[in-house]
Design goal:
globular; MetI-like fold; mainly alpha; 75% helix
């Protein structure tokens, strides 16, 4: 038994080593720098304790970015999982062309979201206005998608859903294929309609996949950067600035306050950690109850 444990340890050692060097060590370093006034360039810096964290409480731009990010996360968690599950059910119900539709749904995941964001920027600023002009200024298309804060937020949601739905759809497809058909048949024989079968048989059976889907969406949504950066750049003004973009601006493009940006990163980590733990406990409880 001990020999097997040693062999297993040797197998995971390279991955653990890479994880420690490229993830744990920078995270620990980031926490240390959050307690300093380092600007990211000079070798000399001072230890200032919790002053950076105290300054965050008065940073209205950062607080606004947290509010915007929470709104974005809430909408993404709901829409992305519902749409992905609906697409998975629609694809799974088909007798033919399953492979084709799986490929089409997953294709946006094969494109970098930076590139995807620039593609959609062209659509919103060039293609749609041109189509609106040809259709005698169609109201739905003749919109300032990037210049108006409200429509900029909708544009970010659209592009984020376009880029993230495919991955979750594949997860839900795999889960649906594992649902016991005899349970669905038994429920139908007992008089259950399609909705009752879905609610009482399918949903409890795929609850682990739903837990993964919500977890993945939460994690990715809180760390969103590339879509916003390529689409709106946080604008107009700072109305669509997410937490990651605020941290990036603080560390590099505005003030070069690397220590302060590190403190903001620690706050982001704490928010994700707490919400993820609560989400996992709630979802695990539903898995057990189901």
């Amino acid at each position: 038994m001990k020999k097997n444990n040693k062999k297993l340890t040797l197998f995971i050692l390279p991955a653990l080593l890479f994880y420690s060097v490229f993830t744990l060590a920078p995270a620990i370093g980031g926490f240390w720098y959050s307690l300093t006034n380092w600007n990211g360039l000079n070798k000399n810096y001072d230890f200032i304790g919790l002053k950076n964290y105290a300054a965050i409480l008065k940073d209205t731009d950062f607080i606004n970015s947290i509010t915007f990010t929470l709104k974005f996360v809430l909408i993404m968690v709901v829409l992305q999982n519902i749409i992905s599950l609906a697409l998975a059910i629609a694809i799974e119900s088909r007798n033919r062309s399953k492979t084709l539709f799986r490929t089409l749904v997953f294709m946006p995941n094969m494109i970098s979201m930076i590139i995807g964001g620039f593609m959609w920027m062209f659509i919103f600023t060039k293609a749609l206005p041109y189509i609106a002009q040809q259709l005698n200024n169609a109201a739905l298309m003749d919109i300032s998608w990037i210049g108006d804060p409200f429509f900029s937020f909708i544009a970010i949601i659209i592009v984020s859903l376009w880029g993230g739905i495919g991955y979750l759809t594949i997860i839900y497809l795999a889960a649906l294929q594992g649902v016991d058909r005899t349970l669905k048949e038994a429920a139908s024989i007992d008089g259950a309609n399609a909705w009752q079968v879905f609610r009482n048989v399918v949903i409890p059976s795929i609850m682990p996949a739903i837990t993964i889907g919500v977890f993945v969406t939460l994690n990715n949504s809180f760390k969103v950067f590339d879509v916003v950066y390529s689409l709106t750049g946080g604008g107009p003004g700072r109305s669509t600035q997410v937490i990651a973009m605020n941290i990036f601006a603080e560390a590099y493009s505005l003030n070069n306050r690397y220590g302060y940006a590190s403190a903001k990163s620690m706050v982001l980590f704490a928010i994700i950690f707490v919400i993820t733990i609560v989400q996992l406990k709630l979802m695990r409880k539903k898995e057990i109850d189901g």
